[in-house]
Amino acid sequence: KRVKEESIISEEEAAQYDRQIRLWGLDAQKRLRGSRVLLVGLRGLGAEVAKNLILAGVKGLTLLDHEQVTEESCRAQFLIPVTAQGQNRAQASLERAQYLNPMVEVKADTDRVETKPDKFFLQFEAVCLTGCSRDLMVRVDQLCAQHNIKVFCGDVFGYHGYMFSDLGQEHNYVEEKPKVVKPKTDESNDGPEAKKPKVDPNETTMIKKTASFCSLKVALEVDWTNEKAKSSLKRTPVDYFLLHVLLKFRTDKGRDPHPESFEADATLLRQIRDDVLEAMGLSSELLPHDFVSYCFSEMAPVCAVVGGVLGQEVVKALSQRDAPHKNFFFFDGMKGSGVVDYFGPK
Amino acid sequence: MVQLVGSLRKELADSLSACRVLVVGAGGIGCELLKNLVLTGFKNIEVIDLDIIDVSNLNRQFLFQKKHVGKSKAQVAKESVLQFCPTANITAYHDSIMNPEYNVEFFRNFMLVMNALDNRAARNHVNRMCLAADIPLIESGTAGYLGQVTVIKKGLTECYECQPKPTQKTFPGCTIRNTPSEPIHCIVWAKYLFNQLFGEEDADQEVSPDTADPELSWNPADTEARATASDQDGDIKRVSTKDWARSTGYDAVKLFNKLFKDDIQYLLTMDKLWKKRKAPLPLDWLEIQKLACPQEVTGTGLKDQQVLGVAGYSQLFSRSVETLRSMLADKGDGAELVWDKDDPPAMDFVTAAANLRMHIFSMNMKSRFDIKSMAGNIIPAIATTNAVIAGLIVLEALKILSGDVEQCRTIFLNKQPNPRKKLLVPCALDPPSANCYVCASKPEVTVKLNVHNTLVLALQDKILKEKFGMVAPDVQIEDGKGTILISSEEGETEANNSKFLSDFGIRHGSRLQVDDFLQDYTLLVNVIHCEDLEKDVEFEVVGDAPDKAPTPPSAQEDKNVANGNKDSAEPSTSSKAPAEQDDVLIVDSDEEEPSSSTMDVRMESGGHKRKLHDAETGEASAKRQRLDQPLAADEEDDDIIALD
Question: What region holds the THIF-type NAD/FAD binding fold domain (chain A) (predicted)?
Fold first, then answer.
């Protein structure tokens, strides 16, 4: 699906986007300008992604969330005013989101994403799912991939966060590389060495590339029972398995682990860990006993980190510039480590 | 039973509500940081920034809207944060952190200081204040897609100044004046020209042909002769550029012909320069007017991204000279203009002058857009990089407040994952450097200079303030009499400024005790008298790498920490500032290369060298060596980068 580029950038846009145009170029900015994005979920992570995409200057951003604002969600997120309790979360976020950049069409949609017909998604160039169940994410990913819509998923659980992307089987992009030019030096027997001028060391060239992505379903259903997979386990981020546990919790309980029910939730998490890892043919030691302590609630700084990486991946994909991270990013806020890894068929 | 408040243990959550923290800077990182702090539960926050809001900030400094342009960043940031967190207790200061009001006592009010700065001078200063107050400091920086966070704790870690940082690249005078070979040389020349014509004239910013160019002669006597000859010719050397321009009423055509024809023809007489180089081609105003044809405007790029022809830039030169001339006249007698990249005629002037010179020297001309980047030292910036870094800052803050400072790390944000799949790379913090000229117990440096032609004023401004980061130095000569050379009290030692160091008996081997009472910092300066420093070099600090050339890979240990693009702490948008701006960062590259271990007593086995990239030039500047931390037996070596 080709993004329509409007060829004229207004002076207002040029002034406002100046510092980012100088980074990713005018073409990229134009493509962003022609893109509509759907963002599902306006909790901490969702708000960060919304901010990042609105500031980047996409054409439109639809905020989709059926939940209501609670006292807790006021503190969790910077778009919702403290007076908005009882309102729909997307609705409540709309005004401050729009203020971030009046040049972007920001909309709020209060429906449940499960109730949206297939054709709803087709109006977007990219879809970003936060706070969604595994089944829902798999379904939406499958649908969007068929229509060449870029799909992103992300969540934050306490100190941990992840991001997944499916940019389709054939995602084309460009990379800017510096032109390597060597200045010529002549042997001189009279006076100091001289260089020939005219060589501009800052010239670059654009290289076209393609990347291929697998579906979320396939990425989550990697087989760990064969020998090859087992040997790669040591280099595999443990967060991948943590993600499975947390998604299962979400499916079973219809919510994420909550500090108010810490004891019960912690026990359930450990149980799920045992079940999930056993089903994969792996030892439950893979996730140490204390893993439960660090995955409750959305930590604001972790939302900022994951939202930043996720936001930038959306920008890259829409602008078709720079190599996308393939296909997971895991952030461990305790260690400060952020890892990109691929799960899926070779 | 663990009591959680959100994700945090109750004790930690409580201490967050109680403690006071200071955020220095309310720009790209600052806005994101303030948001993260209040959402995490910090209640008492003070934020300081001397700058005002500009439209180019709005792509990332999300606490500001268009209607706030021109207002104080610190003030508006506070107001915006209160919108979503009315219970936060925020104090905003529209001021410079280097103001003596913010003394050690002020800093002691805080449990933690977090920098969100864009210039090295302020970073140096805050570093010293936090050392003096013994308060932990979280330092950070971003540039484009890259970013970095680190923690500084007195006695435990390196301070910001433990590792020498490369200073801003400068070019030799003869390159600027006689033999430019890159666009940047022409741009620097054009900025100098602006100052010579309309701004503050500076002896270090000459634009006329340099007859003392070392290339011109093997024989110093020849150079001498030529210099005298030109004086006798009564040409450029005797009359200042500004006086000459004034005498012609800033006539654009006369100016054009002098700079781009006459001076070039003069350069051509210095034939040694052109034996191995392509000779410059002088321009003639009238000839160019004949060539003038209407410029095709191509539709796809920004207006500023068009590259005009010689005729176009000649016209632009003429127009901008006229505009600047009248601006100068409007300001009255003895007025001076300050170059500002956001001032259209000033930017036009540099664009035109630089391009004309590039054309003369057979370089491809550049668009206003590109020239603005180079002339204005613009660092591209986006919201997401700042968002990530600000998130990391708060996570480090939580470790410090939990009493887990040994868990703190330096964390690098790369553009692409490294070979170990890491996009965010945590590294162990280094211990303080034993001979750091700031945080060592009795810091000392040795400076090479010529005591006979170094002014006291130059010692104060160029060496103590600019190079050694002091704000208000007091200098005593260790001559047994305790002679006071420089006093930070205004007016006290002003009479000394125009004298030479040797006038005070300072000679080879002299020692100066330098105090900055604001920074609670004492530095002993050993003087080495030297008469053959390189041309254009006023002093050298022994132990420093040379500034100009990119340092050879093997030569240097260099710390990659956020520094800043500006050497001064002036705000980007202040009317007095050289409008250079934004965060710059020296970060690790994406590649880790294994290499053989080197001779370094601090090193333990098993590490790799990392290449540094200068964010501005993109060149690998030096290799950095790091300490490998001993690991606990069962600990995953995942968060520590082992280096040879």
Answer: 17-337
